[in-house]
Amino acid sequence: MKDLLEIVIKNLVDNPEDVFINEKTNAKVICYEVKVAKDDMGKVIGKQGKMANAIRTLMKSIALKEHKRISVEFLDK
Asked: How far does CA 33 lie from the centroid of its chain?
């Protein structure tokens, strides 16, 4: 799942080398912390957060097939 998230994020940004994804695993929840360059943050979040919500929906649908819960957070570097 982390690989898919990384591919999606890197295709959205201008600086793919600045993309960093940290995975925190809990007993029931997998949390991904996505860090991108400041210039690319707007592209990842999108207008009114629509792109961020679409990324979260995509990841949640994949996690649902594996019977897991997932959270995606976007952080500043």
From this structure: 7
